[in-house]
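Support request from a user on the community tier.

User writes: "When I paste my structure tokens into the form, the page sometimes reloads and wipes my input. The last time it worked, I copied everything first. Here is what I submitted, just in case something in the input itself triggers the reload:"
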């Protein structure tokens, strides 16, 4: 049997995902076979495995940190919100059903056999399994039938590290309150406290650390500094996405301004992380038409609810702004759901996204000569090759290699009736390929054509580093930081101590 350690947090976005990834890299470097696991993930950032199975992007990142191929078993339950009250339920990589929150809470205990089977399959390939919790274990309204925090820790016999976020303030109250709301047997599982995202002089914290250790009887096993890393974010509450949401930049703020429409159900916004690696390129997220400005590139990203987000685009005035910029020759890219929106019509005959009594068809933005029909069966597959011959503004990208993945409900066809993975026309491009720009040549070609569109020579600007090699550097930086600021021998000991 594998040894298990669980990372829980006092709240969402306390840093569980990154700390889990960092520990994966640390113990992999020590020679252990390591695997990540999260029983239930709620995220619109997903990824497709070699087998065509869908899983949360955070566990992909953790698997990469561990130096192994991502498997759907690392995230057996993925919830993808389709609106404010319901989600698509994906089990072991395949869509099982759509449920409201209330329906899911009644249903989720039926998924315990799926969770345990997925975990058991990882035990065949790993010495150590790092398990990530979700939200907080002290959400007392949700503790009954818990399958992702202390309920899972009991099922797996796992010790727990509890992570608090000092950057948001009140970290000692977070840690103490969380422990205090746990049952005595759950408190006994918490073997270490971690203070994350600290800025400043640690000596100022020392009196508080001594007091929290006295009050809880649990040692503080690490005070982790705030880290600026370029690694995948788990969901649309991402700090990085929020930080980059902003107003129209000053004219000299960056050489290239990329504006991404922040759709209500935005998915796979990690498609744009690669552009952070260009020194003179700025990516910002826009929710208001008045903030569109005159970007060098406008992007409509993926969506988990294409028709709902298309209606929001029209209601918010952003649809008119997108069309106006396209008419002014601003380059426009639509990815996945954004691609569908750029077309002429989106039909939903099976009411995949629309209620039974609602219209089953909507007019798109009319910027590409394609039509889309939504279908009940989801397409999930890896996709690679070379970009086909594109016309107009994006011609420079033709023939560049790509390796990404597709996740979409529906088929988009061109005027000939053939399915179209890519469609270009004038200054507009649509594609179903997520991760298209993770390939160095494709990203450089896009940035190069944007400079040419400005009348500048792209060769005069910095080339991007190899994005995959850069991510490896980021994993090592994360691991090096945790090794410096955490008591790793104590953490390793927790793996080796059984907790029943």
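"...and here is what came back when it finally went through:"
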């Amino acid at each position: 049997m594998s040894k298990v350690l669980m990372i829980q947090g006092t709240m969402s976005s306390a840093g569980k995902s990154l700390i889990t990834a960092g520990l994966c890299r640390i113990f992999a470097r020590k020679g252990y076979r390591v695997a990540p696991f999260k029983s239930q993930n709620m995220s619109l950032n997903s990824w497709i495995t070699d087998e065509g199975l869908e899983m949360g992007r955070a566990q992909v990142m953790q698997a990469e940190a561990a130096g192994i191929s991502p498997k759907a078993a690392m995230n057996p339950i993925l919830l993808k919100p389709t609106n404010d009250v319901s989600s698509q339920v994906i089990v072991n990589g395949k869509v099982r059903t759509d449920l409201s929150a209330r329906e899911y809470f009644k249903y989720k205990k039926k998924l315990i056999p799926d969770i345990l089977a997925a975990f058991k399959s990882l035990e065949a390939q790993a010495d150590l399994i790092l398990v990530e919790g979700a939200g907080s274990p002290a959400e007392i309204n949700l503790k009954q039938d818990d399958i992702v925090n202390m309920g899972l820790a009991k099922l797996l016999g796992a010790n727990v590290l509890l992570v608090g976020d000092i950057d948001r303030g009140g970290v000692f109250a977070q840690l103490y309150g969380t422990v205090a709301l746990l049952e005595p047997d759950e408190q006994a599982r918490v073997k270490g406290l971690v203070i994350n995202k600290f800025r400043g002089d640690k000596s100022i914290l020392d009196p508080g650390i001594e007091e929290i250790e006295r009050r809880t009887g649990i040692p503080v096993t690490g005070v982790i500094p705030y880290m600026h890393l370029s690694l995948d974010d788990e969901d649309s509450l991402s700090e990085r996405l929020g930080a980059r949401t902003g107003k129209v930049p000053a004219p000299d703020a960056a050489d290239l301004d990329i504006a991404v429409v922040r759709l209500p159900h935005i998915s796979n916004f990690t498609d744009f992380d690669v552009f952070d690696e260009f020194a003179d390129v700025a990516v910002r997220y826009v929710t208001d038409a008045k903030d569109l400005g005159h970007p060098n590139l406008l992007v409509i990203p993926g969506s988990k609810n294409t028709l709902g987000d298309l209606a929001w685009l029209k209601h918010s005035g952003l649809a008119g702004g997108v069309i106006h910029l396209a008419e002014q020759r601003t380059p426009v890219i639509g990815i996945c759901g954004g691609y569908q929106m750029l077309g002429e019509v989106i039909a939903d005959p099976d009411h995949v996204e629309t209620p039974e009594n609602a219209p089953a068809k909507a007019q798109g933005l009319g910027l590409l000569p394609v039509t889309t029909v939504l279908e009940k069966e989801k397409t999930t597959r890896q996709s690679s090759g070379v970009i086909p011959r594109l016309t107009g503004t994006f011609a420079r990208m033709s023939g560049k290699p790509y390796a990404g993945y597709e996740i979409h409900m529906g088929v988009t066809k061109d005027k000939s009736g053939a399915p179209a993975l890519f469609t270009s026309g004038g200054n507009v491009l649509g594609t179903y390929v997520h991760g298209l720009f993770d390939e160095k040549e494709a990203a450089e070609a896009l940035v190069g054509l944007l400079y040419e569109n400005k009348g500048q020579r792209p060769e005069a600007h910095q080339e991007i580093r190899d994005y995959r090699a850069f991510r490896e550097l980021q994993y090592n930086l994360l691991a090096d930081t945790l090794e410096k600021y955490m008591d790793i021998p104590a953490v390793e000991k927790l793996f080796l101590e059984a907790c029943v």
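Agent notes: The reload is a front-end session timeout and is unrelated to the input. The chain has a mean pLDDT of 91. The longest helix spans residues 467-485. Escalated to web team.
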